[in-house]
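Batch manifest line 187
LIGAND: flavin mononucleotide
JOB: complex structure
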Amino acid sequence: MKILGINASPRIKGNIDLLLDKVLQGAGSKGADTEKIILNKLKFVPCQECAKMTDDGGCLVDDDMQAVYKKIKEADAVVLASPVFFGSLSAQSKMMIDRFQCAWRAKYILKKDNGYKKIPGAFISVEGSRRKDFFENSKAIARNFFATINASYKYELFCPAIEAKGDILSHPAYLKKAFDLGAKLAT
Ligand SMILES: Cc1cc2nc3c(=O)[nH]c(=O)nc-3n(C[C@H](O)[C@H](O)[C@H](O)COP(=O)(O)O)c2cc1C
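JOB STATUS: finished
ARTIFACT:
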């Protein structure tokens, strides 16, 4: 089983990065192959609303998103990991998600197979404050993304009051929840 983690934080060894590593460790403990993509390291443009597009759900813009599409298609489960930035997902998350507009069009407008198989998905997030509505905003977008790539929104983990780099390490209960989430996703 291949589990793909998508890190949408700009901070390496930040809270999302550490939490996602725990999820992937949990998945690995059940024998899954794991891979982590760090969106901030990729070179890709936001959706260009191309007039010319294919009808198979593919995107014609030739940049690092092509590798992301392929990895998601090959994955047996996907984890989207984003901090809350200004009450929503990070810009890195949103830039990636918008690039699935062609897949959304193929599935919902053209009612075609958009090339993504049915897999389980998990969404994990952290924020400095304790605002439930910020997690709910982020969750709504994550759910929409998962529906587009045919992933079921199976698990979530929200960690409030996590602000400075590495704060999550002082919260073993969250780290355990992340590990357990990964283990469940892999079984
Ligand atoms: C640009 C930016 C915007 C942020 N906006 C919010 C916000 O709206 N609400 C909140 O609770 N925390 C906000 N935060 C705090 C982050 O969610 C918090 O520091 C989180 O732990 C960062 O995760 P990371 O270490 O994985 O990057 C913001 C941080 C940044 C850098």
